[in-house]
Amino acid sequence: MKILVISIRSFGDCIVTLELVKYLALDKNIQIDIFTKNEFKQFFTNDKNINEIYTSIFPVGVNGKFSPISLFALFKKSLKLKKQNYDIVLNNIGDFREQAIGFLIAKNANISIKLPKNHPFNNLIRRGLNFLVDRLINIPEKMINIYDMQKYIAENILDKKIALNVDGHIDNKRTKFAIHPTASQECRRWDFDKWIKLIDTLSAKDKVLVFCAPNEKKYIEDAFVKIKDKIEIVASNLELFFKNLENVHTLICLDSFALHAAYYKNVENIIMLNGANNFEIWLPPNAKVVQGDFTCDHFPCYNKPKCLNQDKKFICIKSIKVDDILCKIEKNG
Fold first, then answer.
1. What is the pLDDT of residues 257-307, one digit of tens each?
2. Residues in a beta bridge with 274
3. Would you say 188 and 255 are in contact if contact means Cβ atoms under 8 Å apart?
4. Cystine design at 110: which of 5, 102, 187, 192 (Cβ 3.0–4.6 Å)?
C-alpha cells in the first residue's frame, strides 16, 4: 500500500507527523511518502520509515504571500503526484486547505479527520470542504491531545489496535539543563528577569544551555548579559539544535517548536510554560506543564490575545513564578 501524508503547517507539526509515520510504519507493507514545504524537508530526510519527500509552496503560514504563480505551481505538482496512484492521500489536520490538496492528488482515497463540533483543536484550523474527502476518521470527543490522535489515525488506517512499548531506559550521559526562552508572539513570552533568576539556580553545577535561532543571538546576549558566565548560548541551525538536545537532561521552554523537538530527541524532562493556549492539545506524552493565573476572561485565546488594552495583559504567562518551575523540576528528579 502506498500512502502520501500531507504535512504543511509548522515545524512542530512536522514532529507530530513523524509520530504518525512511526505508527503507520509498523506495517512493513506500507510505503510512506511525504508532501511538505521545502523548509520542512530536513525533518523527514533522515527518517528510515519515509520513502520519498515531495515539496511545494502552500497557502498556509505565508502571511498573504501566496501568489497566483504559487497556486499554479502547487496545482502542477499535485497533478504530477496524482500519477503516483497512491492508495491513500492522508492529512492529520482536517483543515479545508489540506482537504482540497488531497482531493487534487488522490485517485483512490482522500482521507482526513473530523473533529467534534466543540473540540478545542477547531480553534486552530479552518474546517470545511469535507465533501472532497472520501473517508473521514471521526476523532472521539474526549480525545484532545494531538499525539493521541496520531495513534488513533494510524489504528484506523491499519485497522488494528497499536500496543505502545514504553522504553524505561534513562540516558545517564545527559546532564545539561537547557532553556528555550523565545517565541514569535509576545503573548507567549515569559519575563527575562524570571529566566535570569531560574538560571541562577540551575547553573549551580554547570552552565545552562540557552537555545535560540542565529538571528536571535544578539537579542539573547543583551538579555542575559548579567549572567553571561552562567550560560552557553546555542544559536545554531536546526541540525545542530537537534544534536545539542542529545546532551540535555531537562529542557524548560515556552509553547513553541522546542517542546516537540525535545520529545523527538528523547529529552527525559520537558517542562513547558503555558500561557494563552490549551496545553492539553499540544503537550507531548512525557512533558510537564507549568501554568499561571487564568483570571483573564478570554482564556484560552489560543494565542490570539484579546487582553491587549487590559490591566491583566498576558497575565496567563507573566504570572508564572520561578518557584513553580523549580518545584516541577524537583518532582521530575
1. 899 999 989 999 999 998 877 888 889 988 999 987 777 777 777 777 777
2. 291
3. yes
4. 102
- Work out the angle between the directed axes of helices 192-202 and 322-332 (0-180°, nearest 10): 40
All cell numbers assigned to 315:
497575565
Ordered domains of the chain (ranges, CATH): 2-158 (3.40.50.2000), 176-332 (3.40.50.2000)
> What's the sign of the alpha-carbon dihedral 10, 12, 13, 14?
positive
Say if CB 230 and CB 200 are below 8 A apart: yes
Cα dihedral sign, 81-86-91-95: positive
Q: Is 168 exposed, middle or buried (0-12, 13-18, 19+ CB in 10 A)?
A: exposed
Residue 310 per-residue DSSP state: S
Q: Cell 509576545: give the residue.
A: 186
Q: How far is CA 61 from CA 40, 57, 65, 263, in A?
A: 13, 10, 9, 23
Each residue's pLDDT tens digit, 47-98: 999 999 999 988 876 555 667 888 888 999 999 999 999 999 999 999 999 9
Q: The C-alpha cell of 103 is what?
A: 482531493
Other CB atoms within a 10 A radius of the CB of residue 227 amount to 17
> What is the value of pTM for the model shown?
0.85
CB crowding 300-320: b at 16 or more within 10 Å, else e: bbbbebebeeeeeebbbbbbb
Rounded to whole angstroms, how far apart are CA atoms 28 and 67?
40
* 194 grid coordinates: 524570571
- Answer whether 197's CB lies under 8 Å from 66's CB: no
To which residue does cell 523540576 refer? 329
Q: In which element (H, E) is residue 34 found?
A: strand 31-37
On average, the pLDDT of the chain sits at: 88
Residue 153 has pLDDT above 60, yes or no: yes
From 212, 210, 196, select the one nearest 325 (Cα to Cα): 196
